[in-house]
Amino acid sequence: MAAVVQAHERECAVCTNDFTTPKILPCGHLFCRECVISWMDSKSDAGCPLCTCPIVEHQGNSSQIAADVVDALPTDSVMEVIVESASLLVMVDLCTVCEDLTAEYICMHCFEKMCPSCMKIHKKMVVSRSHDVESVSTVTPERLAASRPALCADHVTEKADFFCVDHNLAICTQCFSNKHRTCLDVKSLDEKIQSAEDAFGSLREKMLTAEDNLKKAIVNLNARVQTADVTQQQNMALVDKTCDRLQSMVDECRRQVKKLISDSVSKFKKSLCDVKSELEKRLGKVTSHKHLVTRATAVRPRPALIHAAQTLTDRVNSLDLSDELEAEPWVNPSSEITRYCDDVVKVIGEELKSFKLQLLVVEVSSLFNLSHVQHDLI
Ligand SMILES: [Zn+2]
Ligand SMILES: [Zn+2]
Ligand SMILES: [Zn+2]
Ligand SMILES: [Zn+2]
Ligand SMILES: [Zn+2]
Ligand SMILES: [Zn+2]
């Protein structure tokens, strides 16, 4: 039925001895009554020595005396009986029958510790033949606690058969008909034990359900943490992707604008070059005709000079001597650049707008989930 209680589970974490009047703190941890009192006296607003949870659930009045606070905490009566049984087993006693030899056995029915020979007699006697006798070294404290007979609160030698609810006591038949004659609520002990077992059954059920729900809620929270991580990664990737695209748009814009500028300058430079080579052609003609004229003037052959003067005058008159030739004006590409940049700015603006819409939302239904879990716990 019950899980075996390990020896260390009977120990108080403060004094490291087996519990004496184990008190149940609101967190569920157990400590001896005296240990909690001295712990609380040692420092104000002391919490549980193990988990620091408050010792009193609603610590309204800190001026309360520690002993009163601790006495108001419930006592773990099951642990009390287990500790008592454990110390009974550990104690080296003389046989309760012969009072001569060391007791090595215990009768689970009469609760008497016996030496091996008295144990053999106990097992032969008609009244005790059916009794379960165990070795003191092998029986567990909780098995001993479970087989302990309920004794009358007043006559510790009498077995209790009733439970007076009015006095909250187990009582024997004799006490039932005397002291508790006028008590209003007295039930058979078996009936009270059965209802206590039923109560434990439903408490266990309740704790199992709550434990299960809390574990599920924690698993759910872990899953949500993971989802948040994944969403973050996806959003980061989206940011990178979008920024890369915008960056390449900006790069393309830079390339195009530079091309516009260099195209317009190249065109202008080409026009200047054209004008220059035209003027150089004119210069060449002028220079060679200047030689002809200079030579004629220096040599002066008669009558060739007359013919030459006629021919060269006609020739020079036909030459273009002008130094005026306009290059094509430079066309500033700024309006085209402005149009181009405006388009890119517009596209980037729209990209950014849709980018905000594409970002994944981490949580929408957190409030709902939480209230759902809390509802399950009630
Ligand atoms: Zn203690
Ligand atoms: Zn605690
Ligand atoms: Zn004996
Ligand atoms: Zn016996
Ligand atoms: Zn009694
Ligand atoms: Zn009574």
Automatic annotation (TrEMBL):
<dbReference type="GO" id="GO:0008270">
    <property type="term" value="F:zinc ion binding"/>
</dbReference>
<dbReference type="InterPro" id="IPR047153">
    <property type="entry name" value="TRIM45/56/19-like"/>
</dbReference>
<dbReference type="InterPro" id="IPR000315">
    <property type="entry name" value="Znf_B-box"/>
</dbReference>
<keyword id="KW-0175">Coiled coil</keyword>
<feature type="domain" description="B box-type">
    <location>
        <begin position="147"/>
        <end position="191"/>
    </location>
</feature>
<dbReference type="InterPro" id="IPR013083">
    <property type="entry name" value="Znf_RING/FYVE/PHD"/>
</dbReference>
<keyword id="KW-0479">Metal-binding</keyword>
<keyword id="KW-0862">Zinc</keyword>
<keyword id="KW-0863">Zinc-finger</keyword>
<feature type="domain" description="RING-type">
    <location>
        <begin position="12"/>
        <end position="52"/>
    </location>
</feature>
<dbReference type="InterPro" id="IPR017907">
    <property type="entry name" value="Znf_RING_CS"/>
</dbReference>
<dbReference type="GO" id="GO:0061630">
    <property type="term" value="F:ubiquitin protein ligase activity"/>
</dbReference>
<protein>
    <recommendedName>
        <fullName>RING-type domain-containing protein</fullName>
    </recommendedName>
</protein>
<dbReference type="GO" id="GO:0005654">
    <property type="term" value="C:nucleoplasm"/>
</dbReference>
<dbReference type="Pfam" id="PF00643">
    <property type="entry name" value="zf-B_box"/>
</dbReference>
<dbReference type="InterPro" id="IPR001841">
    <property type="entry name" value="Znf_RING"/>
</dbReference>
<feature type="coiled-coil region">
    <location>
        <begin position="186"/>
        <end position="213"/>
    </location>
</feature>
<dbReference type="InterPro" id="IPR018957">
    <property type="entry name" value="Znf_C3HC4_RING-type"/>
</dbReference>
<dbReference type="Pfam" id="PF00097">
    <property type="entry name" value="zf-C3HC4"/>
</dbReference>
